[in-house]
Amino acid sequence: MAPNETTEKQPDYGPHQFPDRLGFSLWEFERALKQGLIPPADINGRRWSASVVEAVAARADEIRTAIGNLPDMGATRAAALLEKRFGIPVASEVLIELDRLGLIECVGSYKGHPLYDGHALEHFTDQAALEKARHNGRLLDRTAAAKHLGIRASDFDHLTKAKWLRPTTYVHSGWQRRRDAPCVPLYRLGDLEVLLVHPAIDWDEIRATPKGRPSALAKLPKAQ
Predict the structure, then answer these.
(1) Per-residue pLDDT tens for 172-188?
(2) Is the CB of residue 123 less than 8 Å from the CB of residue 68?
(3) Which letter does DSSP use for residue 43 in this model?
(4) At 74, phi and psi to the nearest 5?
(5) Full residue range of the structural domain in which residue 85 is found
(6) Residues 81 and 101 placed together within one structural domain of the fold
């Protein structure tokens, strides 16, 4: 052995050295850690001892298989992946609905944008569920939502004031600065269709109310 050669191993590893030792990308390491496939740091809650690292390294292939091949990703990229897989148009808003259904969950955010579970996305094969999400998860602004219900915009406002209908999300208007909080509410098509068959609402009466006359929806009790 040459005089300057050593057999000593690094005594401990930090959160960047550990994935390097495994040959993992940072997202692979973080997912494995989150899933309990890698134990928590055993030195001051911040670093891992060499013995722990070597034990994990011996299972690296097994861990890589378990965590999958897709990182968590934003709605636009996730929608494009689903569109390619199923051969049908998929809008990014569909990911909100898939999260609502617990099929592809939102697991975090990056620069204020939601990130969706790459592992769930990789294994998602239910075209019927996707078709349903594409329909029910379609998002409409106030004007389009009122048109879908066949009522006046003023009638629609009574539904939102009484909280019989709540926005699914908000987006920026055309005149807003990007750094401002989005202010345009969007409504889920599935929620509108639930209202269309609600026995407490006489849609024929509401649609027959002439312009300038009070809406029957003004009498709706406030939802709890």
Answers:
(1) 887 777 777 788 999 99
(2) yes
(3) B
(4) -70, 170
(5) 73-136
(6) yes
